[in-house]
User: Fold these one by one.
Assistant:
Number 1:
Amino acid sequence: MTALVEGAKRLVGKGSSDVATRVQGLQQAVESARGRLDEATVEETAGVVERSGARLKLSAEHTVVALAGATGSGKSSTFNALTDLDLAAVGVKRPTTSWTMACTWGAEGAADLLDWLGVPPRHQASRSSMLDSPANDDEELRGLVLLDLPDHDSTEVAHHVEVDRLVKLTDVLVWVLDPQKYADAAIHDRYLRPLASHKDVMLVVLNHIDEVPEDRRESMVADLERLLKADGLDGVPLFTTSARHGDGIAELKKELARRVAAKKAVRDRMIADVKDAAQRLQEQSGTAKPGDVARARKSELVDAFADAAGVPTVVHAVDTATRVRARQATGWPVTKWLARLRPDPLRRLHLDLGAGGKELTAGPRSSLPEATLVERARVDTVVRAVADDASEGLAQPWAAAIRHASVSRLDDLNDALDRAVGGTDLGVGRTPVWWKLVRVLQWLLFFVAVAGGLWLAGLAVMGYLQLPDPSTPDYLGLPVPTLMLLGGVVAGVLVALLSRLSAAIGARRRASSADRRLRDAIGEVTEELVIAPIETELDAYRRTRDGLAAALR
Amino acid sequence: MSTPATPTDMITALVRLREALQAAYLPLDLPGVDQRRKDQREMVDQIEDYVLPRLIQIDAPLLTVVGGSTGAGKSTLVNSLVGTRVTEPGVLRPTTRSPVLVHNPVDADWFDKERILPDLARTTGATGDPGALQLVPSDAVPQGLAILDAPDIDSVEEHNRTLAAQLLAAADLWLFVTSAARYADQVPWDYLKAAAERSTAVAIVLDRTASEAIGEVSAHLARMLTTRGLKDSPLFTVAEGNVDGDGLLPPDAVSDIRGWLHSLAADSNARAAVVKQTLEGAIRTLSHHAHDVADASAEQAAMVARLRKDVDRAYDEAVKSVDEASADGTLLRGEVLARWQEFVGTGELLRSLETKVGWIRDRIVGAVKGRPQQVEKVTVAVESGLETLILEHAEDAAEHAHESWSSVEAGRNLLEDSGRDLGRASRDFRARAERAVRDWQRGVLEMVRTEGSDKRSTARVLAFGVNGLAVALMIVVFASTAGMTGAEVGIAGGSAVVGQKLLEAVFGDQAVRRLAANARKDLNRRVTGLLDTERRRYLAVLDDLKVDPKAAENIRSVARRIDDLRFAAHIAPTPAEESSLQMIAPDEVHGERA
């Protein structure tokens, strides 16, 4: 694209970067619209970009003017009259001209341009190389490349193709009409009306005016102006000439000289092309402001995905598992083995395999139930709503592209969700410090109780054996061993109950933190599978829209 | 006069062809359909304007239509031939005015509206109305021949072009006018090619040619005519001369043409030969091109069938998926299963056994705790599960149908023209789905109540509560096809087993099986009904097209009938017939062609 800018800079002074910006904008639009908007239109626009880019690199000193018209309208005669040379064949047999003739005023630098136009050297002539010419009009026409095109309406289809090709490449178009053919559908429907946007770079010549009686000329010109106006070409300069007798040729020449000297034609033609193409693309693409995915919608999406991933099951399992484990750690040693009989729900879901287990399986793979049709249906519904939000107000092709993108990666849904859930640290591996303290305390209390019990048992045995009663210390009026036994048991059960209570609180906290972490992970999955593809399309739309806006500015 | 041996049969066949053609609608935008629509219109016009009138009155005057490009000098030529100014030539292009028909006063009756060109009004004065035909009686025109000045064939005025085509199709003889600047134009040659194809009698007039160029141009034109299959058409030249005050060319300039026309008018055999050549060519081309229209019509029917199949496939798939998903146990996972297990687990089902006191206590407890009854929770879960399922499949089907229609241009245009967003389920579909599911639940409830009312099990039904039993029945329906494959279905099936056992205990296993089957059928019927309403949105678009799949066969059989009649009329149509003009063409014209 830098080459394009340089080319534009060479294309003299003011407004040149303007052309480059427009072409760049159009190119940006084409690149982002490709594969999304109607292929034919996009390719046509790409052709405009390519042509403009190519023309910008070629001589800016030259203005290409083409004489186009029906067979027998006198294009070749006009060409000869303008060049003062008998270069183009003139005849009564139709169609006369079968190839494009070119004549250049001031040949340096024009070779590449003519090459690009596809005019072979044997059909080229240079006005400055002809020594016979008077120098004066050479100077004022310097920089003119005049083309004599074949006809567009004869039975020779190859001629139409050549005309269609060159009409797209030339800077100024001169339509040569004649009194017989000026109202033909072939020229109005196929060329003049579609090119209405190019009226700044068009001239119309009514040739053979000598064949019309003088008193009728005025009304004929008025009639032609009426037809041109109907084509959307009001204001296009209209010349009446008779190439055979030289009438009006001087005026035409002067107008051409003016256009060549102004050096605006290249730019005007290009802007007209670019605007035209951009307009057509915009009709399809639309100008609506791109929609956005609302935060609420995103959290709805995460909810649906989370349900499909079985997050509630996992969270519930975390809660239960924490309680079970807390009970194992902090329960009263006498009864806590009972807790071991209950299965750990997390292990059952294969979510907590421990370090060894994770090494064995290649990746974390849970055995959460797969999303059911109902859950999947809910996911689809929310995804559709998200796509609807994003494509709100956009033109149909873009809405379709967004909808398509939104579901393009949903095939990976189950896998991605499984990985997200399996890869999330649920925070159940940690053993809280207070569990350890309580465990020590519990064993301490247990031993105290056991010690008290043994003591009492010793005392009982001694009593049974009628041994002298050893003095047992007492505390607060109760014998210490009794106090130890009862206190140990009561305190142990009490501590167990208290721990259970606080474990429940902890479990709830852990469950909710697991929930949060899982949802975060799933949020990433929704970003990756749904939001990102949609954003890509929205981005393409934005680029297309901005590009077209730049091209149409 | 060797008209077809049985003209009445041929007329009947052509009337039927016209009807068959008119009945073949070509509304879909298939590739090349524009041309076919145009063919169809032109064929109908030609049958009405020319073929039928000509067949009915084979000895009517020869209609010579002067046609050609704008600015080639048609009007001047007609005026010069007649010798007075009957039509207004103009320098302005295109000239818009009604076409002028010049005829001998004796032949006036032949050209009224009933007979030929029925859709053009008749006037006697010059008007600017291109929908009228101006009749000018003139003694300068020989009896048995009429000259019609047609509008141009190639100007920006589209109406001129259509009218010219229509008039040329109604001609017995074309007098095709071109000029030195025009003779290689594409549009006139398209007409001449068509004329050659259907062996219409054509004479070419090279008009407005500078005298020094006449030799070269007419030689070139003659060569072009020969290479394009019109070597037998006479070629006249009219030099570009000075017109007099009335805009007439000097009589010398047109004497060739006038002489030729007069001799043609005088020789009734030659005239009949011209009529026959053009008429038979027209009929042959009609029956030939009728097959093209028939093909187009068959393509339309095939496309309609394809689009219909796309819709059916999408919605059949949706009905099937919902049906399967509602019976294979998938609905029993997730929310519904959880609620059901709560329902069974909390023992509410079994508590129904208890006395009214228990029931009242439960209600009070429920009210105080602000919690709906467990059975209601199951019902709600079933409702939202089914509803989501149906809704999503309806959306999915709409999207699929939309997608497959969008993949062809015809379908895309239909979608655009329908003015509705068919790619989504209808706006009120959610509401209708909700209602349908609730109706189904009510139906199941009713089923259980009826089953219970006439049995000795009534007491037990009352004891368990109709609601609980209805929910159990739904659960059984949802698991009705769940094979015991995989652990999860096992769980789901296991839950259903509780319901099944309970129902069997109340109604007996025979009745339970029947009830489950009925409930499932009922659900299927409602879902099908719901989705059919959706499907009809698409099908209505297709029905509106009125494409008749039999139209193509109709056209073909009539065309075959016409061919049979043609062959029966004369065993071998010889190519020599195409040169009927040659025998009456003036010698000097031939000389020029060499």
Number 2:
Amino acid sequence: MNSNHIVENLKKEIENFSLQLKVEKVGQVLEVFDGIAKVSGLSDIKSSEMVVFQNGVVGVALNLEEDTVGVIILGDFSKIKEGDEVKTTGRILEVPVSNSILGRVVNAVGVPVDGKGTIKTDKTYPIEKVAPGVVTRQSVSEPVATGIKVIDAIIPVGRGQRELIIGDRQTGKTAIAIDTILNQKGQNLICVYVSIGQKDSKLRKIEARLEEGGAMNYTVIVSASASEPAAMSYVAPYTGVSIAEYFMDQGKDVLVIYDDLSKHAVAYREISLLLRRPPGREAYPGDVFYLHSRLLERACRRNAKYGGGSITAFPIVETQAGDVSAYIPTNVISITDGQIFLETDLFYKGIRPAVNVGLSVSRVGSSAQIKAMKKVAGTLKLDLAQFRELEAFAQFGSDLDESTKRQLERGKRAVEVLKQLQYAPIKIENQIVTLYALTKGFMDDVSLEKIKEFEAGLIEYSERNAKVFYKEIAESKMWTEKGEEQLKKAITDFKSSFQKAKS
Amino acid sequence: MTVISNNDIARAIYLVSKDKSRAEQSVISGKIVKFLFKKRMLSKASDILSRLNVIINKEEGRVVAKVSSAKKLDHQSKTYLEHILKKRYAAKEIFLDENLDEKLLGGLKIRVNDEVIDLSVRNKIKKLQEYLTKSA
């Protein structure tokens, strides 16, 4: 490109430029503190309207008072001075969206922070939107394959569902979310991971892990780190769901993970208190419930008439010492369609993922579960429930009758089978094979320590020797008698060779 | 408890002293000062006064327009400007508060209350810059 060409281009651009001068409403900054600005003037401003400060930093007007406006500052507030000019924009806060945002890390206002250059965008989406109405919705019918046995079998999640992941610190909440993202390769599910108030080092680790697993191709990370002002943390989940809505509007299925909403509530509490809104229980403002309900209500499965697509939400909430009856956990539990409850005790017993099967539920997911899985999971659930009931008697050992002993042994094996390593998602077909072998009693005479080994070997063996079964599952989501026969044969064959090799 | 704002006081002052004769007004003014003293609000007097000013201007249809320009405006453009502003704000009177600002390079910038109409050359150049850098 020579200089002439550039000049010509420039000329053309300048000719195309039409100056649109508008009447602007301006105000003056009265005071700035802790990410909040009090601004005078700005008559006719709308609630949650975007404003622009003199140095280009944007803010959102949250408090509209008689002659001042309380604005949260999204960005560096150290350069905003008293007396600075503030302009209204007439729009509510927006994020730039485009398909090229996939694989990127952006901050709460959609600006890339991964050092990979600017993102070319053609559209902006408002961060606050009214959730899709009743007529546009459809009930959940497609599964989200998490690749985690306990979840896929007992607490299945459907596309469009809101499933809470709840538990104490260090119980593997994020691990479940990351495993789910890693398992979505080739599943036509775009993932948005929203990190709220997390350590930057943790986020970096997650990003590297996703990159390594090839998951960044279909993932967007929205980051509001702990070092950024509370306003960024407050906005981040809405940004995440707006990005998700952009993809849903193209008829795609999206999974959004909010990690975590307790920090989001804390950030909102900080903002509310600074804006002098009256505090309520645990000093949270009166509208924390609405804060989360309007966010999670935007998760939906839209029917084909309105363009299809879905947003599945995995909110994460951290509890303190297993207390699920605190304010935020109860709120979010009541909003979501079920929860995955993780426990410290189980975690240290070596049951990982530390899912408490008794307290975890999925209220709508079972209708999305594939038929074959439903069949094996039904008996598994029963086995585990009976096991929990009898567990207290386990120490009596020899005094128990035959059937109780059998149930105890089955339960122990079920717990063992449901253990799973991190970053090792398992294909749904393989999960069905293992659970089939378990529930039909093929594992009852395998010793507990050998279960994991048996499972790995079995999967490998049946993948080779029960091809009909695998094909049937892939095609019709259910097995026929022929496939079942073949699988049974494969399991018995493998078992005899397994036991021979050991003895 | 309802809080009485400075704005409320200014409005009250305006209403009591409206349509009163000179003599009456001076009595009222004395009472107002006494009232403010009693309520320990004399320190807020300047704020109340400026609010009173705004209220009076609004009620009497007076509009103060702050006009900044790079060069001094001639008489003709001033009357034209007054005419236009009168129509826009449905005002009876327009006060032009003129300022000279070399940085505008050319054109005018008009400010009425919190509304700004920026017709300066500097703003136009800025807009052009935004447009050119955005499309690239």
